[in-house]
């Protein structure tokens, strides 16, 4: 119960992903229709902002938000360690969110000529000690010096919970991850808005997706990822308690029969069993809340480096308390109903000594306790397999990142200072300047961050399956990219400057052309609005270490930058020479000087730092699911052992009679263990089938990544079945070593 309550506190934060603004159903994100993108839409690019704004301003209030990590310094306030999250927004942000600051004001017409800043309540309290005199002070953010005009209320967020500064600018710069958000102003619905968009020009056609749309909410994933395994742990614990209480009820059948014979009603006997279950559940709930308080602190500490805003909202509040009470009530239902029914239906005639004896043992007969063993085994298998599947998939994701001395590879993201596409010649001038820096071994340009994954495109080629099409992530690069990233040549040769050739990754070559080889093949690629033909000149290694993850993602096709635009951003990669010290160069000033102010440096980090940011969240989840799997295995083993042991104890009198009639210890043990082994095997099989069905419908990729190895299923099921068989052997062993007359002489066995 403590595990379920702890994870519920995180689940309610993640599931409540609607920002705290008035009428969130009237606010939507705007995308651009793209049939080749996931769900048929993609984010708006910086070069498309003006077109989308022109088409969307009718009956809509539109703003843009662009997230970036920056060093923030507020005059008169402490400088917090590490970069903070800054969101650059348009002045219309005020009319979209419709939330007034708790201190100061929002953007006004008098601010049109300059940038102003709104601080989050968290930053105001941590850095400025809640100083009301912060208004009017200067904030230094990546060279900008806006004035603070307000502090947003506690708990307010928009875009994500980690935003520390909203930088209100007359025009948002072209940063990565631009969100275009709109609010309805009239009586028009979002269906009517999208119908109006569809009636316009087909190029760069926007589409509105309300914030309340299920496709942009994370509640289901959060339930599966956090609350699901925790609830299975709770169900397993309830199964354990139910098995013990049923066994206690069966062990007290003689006492219950006497109570009934003395005039007690069946409902009164059932109430006694329910009272015991209620007492267990209430005490468990009190202890669980104390344990959950510690669990919440641990969860906050684990999530704080990833999302400080979300971590601060994880707490034991009224909803968590209500969830604990509901879990306690449900536990009473699960653990108390069956024992109560069993107690109320006790047959006096078959139990009292004066009555004719009833058969104690019939080979192949299974009762209520055995049914609980079956359910317990199935739940245990589902719990262990689900947690192991999640743990394996997350571990595979972490292992799919780039390998090698990544700390020697630096990545600079260039953005257009005017909000348009990155000018190719300006980017090349920056590249040449970087090559001339001391300690730089090799440098290159690319249009995407050099990490696994990305948006896929359709290639037209002579594919091995005869379809004529293949999927790939198309990356525009310059010569030297493969040396800079550390990709090894597997065949052919890389393209040279001025050559219209392409290079395929090893996975793409295998997937599209099989054993026929990729070198010399022709591909037709649609890049933006242009269609280009390339001959494959070489094959390089994959940009990642996990073959299973690579098979789930489109593989890479590298095409030369000759005659192509880099789009909204370009990345300069350079590898430092071995043994060279970290550069002490003003890269931001270098970019601005070299590009004559046309480009700005939006981000600068080593590839190791980028990979660490991408793997931090999976690494934390790996630890969480690893702990959950360990807890699941312990609870499952204890529960199965307790259930099977109680079932076997009920048959000790039968075992003693068989021994008295001449049965050998070996045959008796084989009979007991064989009977329970069949029960455990059926339960394990049912649990495995349930796991496959649930995972296939919710996250089929998990089965491909972690569920294709038969040893995975056999190992988990065999371990749990083995624990059940060992538990059934215990009572037999104790019966053999006890005095048979002491067992046969007891009337209640």
Structural commentary:
There is one protein chain. This protein is an alpha+beta fold and 749 residues long. Among the domains are: 26-216, no CATH class; 406-613, no CATH class. It is built from 23 helices and 23 strands. The strands form four sheets. Strands 1, 2, 3, 5, 6, 7, 9, 10, 11 and 12 form a ten-stranded mixed β-sheet that branches. Strands 15-16-21-18-20-19 form a six-stranded mixed β-barrel. Strands 14-22-13-23 form a four-stranded antiparallel β-sheet. The longest helix has 43 residues, at 607-649. The relative contact order is 0.11.
* Low-pLDDT segments: 354-364
Q: Mean pLDDT, nearest integer?
A: 76
Strand content: 15-25%
Instruction: State the major sheet.
Output: 10 strands, mixed
Distance between the termini: 34 Å
Number of helices: 23
Record field, number of beta strands: 23
> Structural class, from secondary structure content?
alpha+beta
Q: Into which percent range does the helicity of residues fall?
A: 40-55%
The gross shape turns out to be: globular
Instruction: Tell me the Rg in angstroms.
Output: 33 Å
């Amino acid at each position: 119960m403590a595990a379920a309550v702890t994870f519920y506190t995180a689940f309610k934060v993640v599931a409540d992903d609607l920002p705290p603004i008035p009428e969130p159903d009237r606010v939507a994100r705007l995308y651009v229709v793209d049939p080749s993108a996931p769900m048929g839409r993609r984010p708006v690019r910086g070069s498309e902002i003006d077109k989308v704004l022109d088409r969307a301003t009718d009956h809509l209030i539109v703003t843009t938000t662009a997230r970036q990590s920056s060093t923030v310094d507020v005059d008169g306030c402490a400088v917090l360690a590490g970069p903070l999250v800054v969101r650059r927004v348009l002045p219309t942000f005020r009319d979209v969110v419709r939330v007034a600051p708790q201190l100061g004001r929002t953007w006004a017409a008098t601010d049109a000529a300059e940038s102003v800043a709104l601080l989050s309540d968290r930053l105001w309290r941590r850095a400025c000690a809640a100083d009301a005199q912060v208004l009017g002070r200067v904030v230094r953010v990546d060279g900008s010096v806006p004035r603070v005009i307000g502090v947003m209320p506690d708990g307010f967020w928009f875009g994500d919970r980690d935003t520390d500064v909203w930088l209100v600018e007359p025009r948002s710069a072209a940063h990565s991850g631009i969100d275009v958000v709109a609010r309805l102003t009239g009586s028009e619905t979002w269906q009517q808005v999208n119908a109006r968009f569809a009636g316009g020009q087909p190029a760069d056609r926007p589409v509105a997706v309300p914030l309340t749309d299920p496709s942009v909410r994370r509640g289901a994933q959060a339930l599966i990822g956090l609350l699901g395994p925790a609830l299975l742990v709770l169900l397993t614990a309830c199964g354990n308690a139910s098995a013990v209480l049923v066994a206690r009820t069966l062990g007290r059948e003689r006492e219950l029969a006497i109570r009934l014979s003395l005039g007690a009603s069946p409902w009164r006997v059932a109430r006694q069993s329910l009272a015991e279950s209620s007492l267990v559940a209430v005490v468990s709930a009190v202890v669980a809340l104390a344990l959950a308080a510690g669990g919440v602190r641990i969860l906050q500490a684990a999530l704080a480096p990833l999302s400080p805003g979300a971590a601060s909202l994880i707490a034991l509040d009224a909803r968590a308390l209500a969830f604990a009470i509901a879990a306690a009530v449900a536990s009473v239902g699960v653990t108390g109903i069956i024992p109560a029914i069993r107690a109320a239906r006790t047959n006096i005639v078959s139990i009292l000594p004066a009555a004719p004896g009833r058969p104690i043992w019939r080979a192949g007969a299974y009762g209520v306790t055995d049914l609980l063993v079956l359910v317990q085994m199935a739940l245990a298998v589902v719990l262990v397999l689900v947690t192991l599947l999640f743990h394996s998939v997350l571990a595979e994701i972490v292992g799919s990142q780039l390998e090698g001395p990544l700390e020697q590879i630096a990545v600079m993201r260039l953005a257009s200072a005017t909000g348009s596409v990155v000018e190719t010649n300006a980017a090349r001038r920056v590249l040449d300047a970087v090559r001339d820096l001391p300690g730089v071994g090799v440098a290159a340009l690319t249009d995407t961050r050099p990490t696994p994954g990305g948006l896929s495109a359709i290639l037209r080629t002579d594919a091995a399956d005869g379809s004529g099409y293949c999927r790939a992530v198309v990356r525009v690069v310059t010569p030297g990219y493969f040396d800079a990233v550390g990709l090894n040549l597997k065949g052919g040769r890389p393209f040279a400057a001025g050559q219209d050739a392409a290079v395929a990754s090893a996975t793409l070559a295998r997937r599209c052309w099989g054993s026929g080889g990729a070198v010399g093949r022709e591909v037709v690629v649609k890049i933006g609005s242009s269609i280009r033909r390339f001959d494959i000149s070489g094959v390089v290694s994959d940009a990642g270490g996990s073959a299973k993850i690579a098979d789930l993602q489109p593989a890479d096709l590298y095409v030369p930058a000759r005659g192509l635009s880099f789009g909204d951003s370009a990345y300069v990669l350079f590898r430092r020479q071995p043994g060279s010290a970290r550069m002490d160069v003003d890269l931001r000033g270098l970019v601005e000087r070299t590009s004559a102010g046309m480009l700005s440096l939006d981000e600068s980090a080593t590839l190791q730092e980028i990979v660490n940011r991408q793997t931090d969240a999976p690494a934390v989840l790996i630890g969480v699911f690893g702990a959950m799997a360990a807890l699941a295995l312990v609870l499952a083993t204890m529960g199965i052992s307790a259930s099977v042991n109680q079932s076997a104890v009920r048959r000790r009198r039968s075992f003693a009679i068989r021994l008295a009639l001449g049965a050998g210890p070996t045959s008796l043990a084989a009979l007991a263990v064989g009977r329970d082994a069949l029960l455990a095997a059926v339960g394990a099989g049912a649990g495995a089938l349930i796991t496959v069905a649930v995972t296939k419908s919710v996250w089929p990729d998990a089965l491909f990544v972690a569920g294709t190895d038969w040893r995975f299923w056999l190992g988990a099921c065999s371990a749990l079945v083995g624990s059940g068989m060992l538990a059934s052997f215990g009572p037999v062993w104790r019966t053999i070593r006890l005095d048979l007359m002491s067992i046969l002489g007891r009337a209640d066995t």
